[in-house]
Amino acid sequence: MASRHVVFSHGLESGPWGTKISAMSEVAKSEGWNVDSVDYRGVNDARDRVTRLLSFCRDLRGDLVLVGSSMGGYVATSASALLHARGLFLMAPAFYMPGTEQLTAKPAPCPKAIVHGWRDDVVPVENSMRFAREHSATLHILDSDHRLHSELSLVNYLFEYFLVALDLPKRR
């Protein structure tokens, strides 16, 4: 079996092994995926984070799923086409934010899922709705805030479903 990698990109004020990423990495491992998380602490510019992700992934072979939270969602999406991502799973991605609207990148042509909280006071849920509509992404809107911690078990379930669905044969 080819190697399979899930690479996480954390948000601006988080770290590489925060609550969500730690929990989700266990889900990925249980489904047979190798797991990595890029450390962006101290790198505040989104474009510099994209460069770091591209560098981190350059030697990975096999299927690659990029997972990003908040700014990490923007970073994962921006790198997805160049990395030929097999899947993109995003949580409250920082799309269309004031001053960076033009930076929201076109994602790789792969399955895309977004999880966002109705009560997000950092990134408006409408931004994910717009991105999902424009790029044919599956959108899950939960009764939670930006961090999604109150719905972590549901986020994990949706992530597991996303990974399993990647392995299913396409039906025509």
Describe the structure.
Helix 1 runs parallel beside helix 5 (152-167) and helix 2 (46-57) packs across helix 3 (71-80). The protein has a single domain (4-167), classed as Alpha/Beta hydrolase fold, catalytic domain (Rossmann fold), CATH 3.40.50.1820. The two termini are 25 Å apart. It is globular and about 40 Å long. Helix content is 35%, strand content 20%. The longest helix is centred in the C-terminal third of the chain and has 16 residues, at 152-167. The chain contains five helices and six strands, in the order E-H-E-H-E-H-E-E-H-E-H. With 172 residues, the protein is of the alpha/beta class. It has a six-stranded parallel sheet with strand order 2-1-3-4-5-6, sandwiched between helices. The mean pLDDT is 92.
